[in-house]
Specification:
alpha+beta, conserved putative lor/sdh protein from methanococcus maripaludis s2 fold
Length: 370
Amino acid sequence: MRKIIYYSVLIVFLSSCSSSDKKAELAKLKLQRDQLNTEISKLENEVNPGNKNDAKSVTVSVTDAVETVFNHYIQVQGTVDGDQNIAVSPQIAGIVTAVYVKEGSNVGKGQLLAELDGRVLKQSLEEVKTQLVLANSIFQKQSALWDKKIGSEVQYLQAKTNKESLEQRLGTMREQLKQARIVSPISGTVESVPLRVGQSVSPGVPTSTIRVINMSVAKISADVSEAYASRIHDGNSVLVNFPDVGKDIETKLSFAGRFIDPTNRTFKVECKISSKDLVLRANMIAYIKIKDYSNSKAISLPVNYVQNDQKGKFIYVAKQKGTGWIAEKRIIKTGKDYDGLVEVLEGINIGEKIVSAGFQNLNAGSSIVF
């Protein structure tokens, strides 16, 4: 029993000694490691003193702040029309006896388009002409007698009045006969001819009209919200886009309405362009971009460069510190924004380096490289 106890105590003692040796050896190795790391760091700083800072620097991209022209536009959808788009209607009721044009016909100003039945008017006109011949003959005879003091003044005045009355009636009937002729008031292209021979027509009825359009000058019109009324005037620069044609044209507003439509709170704007090199059609869609603000000496940045915090909007600017660069947080004041760009009014000077990429990982004073 004594031997068993003896061997047991011996085994525990030997195990304890082995564990203590391992702990001592581990502590010794750790000390050696720390000493080596210190020596390595010291040598690295002596060989390349910039490596330590570079390891902690954030890689970014920068762009120089430059002076640019900043323009702001208001975009609305409009429609195309001819500057002259006229529905030519008969001036009197009647029956169509002839149609001289068809869709697509080119016509000149004053050209006859169609005629109505004017037989009754023509017959009446001939009757009045006959009466006028007699009235003229009587007047001439009464005038000759009156010059010789023969006859009464009343007879002379009656003959004169009858002649003049018939002359006026003849003129009126000739004008009425002209109204039986449908004449184009402009030069252009015939777009629609709903008239047919034998058709009964009346003034102002859509089915009784011939439409003539002159597209040599196109008119683009649109409705703009009254919120922009103070910023849009006659002469504002305009960029017109025709999506169906795939073309942009610069022009100016020819008209900005002074009347606000109470139903939709908008006012009308118009601009005109030459369609010489374009194939435009009435009621075609066009997008109008009206320039309502311009700054020729602006500093503008992409909107995604600008961040926000409790103090307001800010960006990061690269500032040189010694032989390196750091990020400086700069509070800025912005103006209008358009098409992904924002106008910077205060906080940036021309020539400064704006951090354009990598700013998500920055803090004020962070060391940066680019």
